[in-house]
Amino acid sequence: MRILILGGSSEASALSHLIALRPDIEATVSLAGRTAAPAALPIPSRSGGFGGVDGLVAYLMAERVEAVIDATHPFAAQMARHAREACAILRLPLLVLTRAAWAPVAGDRWIEVADVEAAVAALGSVPLRVFLTVGRLSVPAFAAAPQHHYLIRSIDTPQGLDVLPRHELLLARPPFSLADEKRAMSEGRIDMLVSKNSGGEPTYAKIAAARELNLRVVMIRRPKPEASQALHDPAAALAWIEAHRKAP
Ligand code: NAP
User: Fold this and answer.
1) What is the pTM of this model?
2) Is 167 near ligand 1, meaning CB less than 6 Å away?
3) Which atom of ligand 1 is nearest to the CA of 72?
4) Any idea which fold 2-100+224-243 has?
């Protein structure tokens, strides 16, 4: 069975490890190509955009793909939309494999906002020391609030850092431990954390650390609507593939 996995998330990676043990499933993981050295995958991968919905339709036909799993990051809204449209055109089964969003618990001091621009505004006018963990591409938006000092954590170096007059860069790849996150926030004398509501375990420690240190968190809500057919567990996605196998 020929499957396309739209990747760029830990769920896509976990699913690819399960599929690697299954010679009867021929799957390719697609990456956008944004990360300079992506983590190694145990099954074939391709990299780069398809060229919109038309390009994706052409790819799915040329590769005779039988089902698509959208395992992109919860904030990759455009790729998710393209997958929905292309699969509708070709009448291909589509599964969304995503992690559940984080929910605030007692002690959390979240300021929930709709998007990155609203997160910038939520920091306010008084200069703060801000821990920015929003992903490389969202960093330049914070040039609109140059009064703050930013501790920026990212896998690769963001472009356009010179627009932020006061910043430090921390290059690191998740997972992060609670102790490490508390240390980073204490040593950085952080006043406020900015995070996307990505969900999942590997990056939750920063949220718990902010709670323990009584820090406010500007939490950016997810852009994607909840998919009607979404699973959170890579093993369940494998069962979904089985269920969509055509009879020989
Ligand atoms: P996006 O806004 O939804 O997509 C923008 C364009 O990038 C898409 O139209 C598509 O180009 C290309 N693209 C995105 N994901 C792709 C994939 N898996 N394979 C091939 N092409 C892809 O996506 P984004 O927010 O820029 O995220 C890019 C990638 O990084 C995604 O794969 C996502 O899983 C990962 N990621 C994103 C975030 C985040 O916060 N947004 C965080 C961690 C990881 P064409 O139209 O040319 O096909």
Assistant:
1) 0.91
2) no
3) 34
4) Rossmann fold (3.40.50)
